[in-house]
Hints:
- The protein is of the alpha+beta class and 472 residues long.
- It has 4 domains: 10-155, Beta-Lactamase (2-Layer Sandwich); 164-256, 2-Layer Sandwich (Beta-Lactamase); 258-330; 331-472, Heat Shock Protein 90.
- 40% of the residues lie in helices and 27% in strands.
- It has helices spanning 10-18, 23-43, 88-96, 141-152, 183-192, 211-219, 258-298, 302-326, 335-350, 370-391, 433-445, 467-470, and strands spanning 46-52, 58-65, 81-83, 100-105, 111-120, 126-133, 168-172, 178-181, 223-229, 232-243, 246-256, 332-334, 355-360, 367-369, 398-407, 410-417, 449-455, 458-466.
- It has a 6-stranded antiparallel sheet with strand order 3-2-1-6-5-4, sandwiched between helices.
- Strand 9 and strand 10 (232-243) form a beta hairpin.
- Helix 1 (10-18) crosses helix 2, helix 8 packs antiparallel against helix 9 (335-350) and helix 9 (335-350) runs parallel beside helix 10.
- The longest helix has 41 residues, at 258-298.
- It is elongated, with a radius of gyration of 34 Å.
- The chain starts with 9 loop residues before the first helix and ends with a helix.
Amino acid sequence: MQTRGLEMSQLYTLVRDTTNLTDVQAKILDHMQAALQLASDVSRNQVYLCARGKNDDISVILAAVKPSYTHGSTFFRSGDTFLEGELALIENVFTTGRKVVGRKRLDQGLEVAATAYPVVDNAGQPFAAVCFLSGSLRQQQVLTDTANLALQVPFSADDYYSIRPQDGMIVLDSLGRIIYANDMADDLYFVLDKEAVEKREIVGHTIVRFPLVEKVMKTGRPAYGDEVSENMTLSAWGLPIISGGKVARTVLVLTDVTAIREKERQILVKDSVIKEIHHRVKNSLNTIAGMLRMQARRAKDEDTKDALKRAVSRILGISQIHDILANQSGDKIDLDILLDKITKLSVDSLALIPVTILREKAGRGLIVDSEKAVPLAIAANELIHNAIDHGFRDRKRGTLTVGTRIEGTWIHVYIRNDGNPLPEDFSTRTFNLGLQIVRNLAEIELKGKFSVQNESGFVAADIYCPIPLMEG
């Protein structure tokens, strides 16, 4: 057989090695794979693709799928072979070219209901079979028929969401009449159609005006959306089953997401409140900074002026952090994004000389608790300010490196500058106020470690924070 233009899937390889099917027939089976899981979930049966082997006396299982919400393995596996008579149902399909309903006794002694359908090629000749095996002697033909139709016009696997036992499933015909509804769908459908409450069952009932269903039947494409009725919210997913170029059936899945949507609403409210708090804190800090600037201009003592200016710088740094947090969602934040913004804002607002910024980032995203991000950001901001104020003083240009690493169970944040080195008598006892603030934040607030020293021509400051604490 020719393989040109056909991706070598596991099914295709099995077809090539165990059957005499043509390339076109192999393509048909290969394309059907995308819908096998849907067929299994809709029918609530195990689904098998079967064909005659290279020897006509042998049948081969080419694919085996079980419902996504079940555990255990399938009755048969891909590659299993059977002698003539062991799969009489399949042989009957090959002989008649029609749907066959019967039973199958398994090796374990279990007898199950079985339905098989022919798979035909472009010439209308049956060359393979789709077999549905239930876990008992009960089988609903409307579901196996619907599932078999879904296999005839393959769709993208991205269009399919697994159907779960707690979902309500409704099958509609081409006119929008309900031809199947499971027990959960009975209860959920009453939320949409109060008149149907008087009916003992909704099968045979034409579905109420439902925009999502109308969209599916009109476009022939899957559709998703929420339907709100009084105090209940249903998530709806509609999937068209195409036959003869038209929507022959529609699978409608309903899920009660009332509690989920309420939780999402509460999270949005909480998120909005947190953003507003950060925004107000930022404004308050800016106001305080403005007052200190006025005080600094009126101060006559140079040391007082310098202390006030330093305080203004720290307050504005904290204000910048709250401004960044006010524009992020949720209670988690990407630490590298936060450091990107802090570094740029600090250099743009404080540097009086050209400063080259080098950002070195961890190999993976550092998503940390926003509550813990604040003290770490304040500490990093203080170190960046310190590098600009002291490291680059009386210099013509400078290089500032701000980086993050994952080292074991620690997040390592480091700030390097190639400016003025630390004095020889430098120690923790000579820490200025800024470095004392950084040490207290790192060691007390974040239960981590802090150090600063001269290192290979750079002044290197390092903060280590435990990952479990930072991730909350």
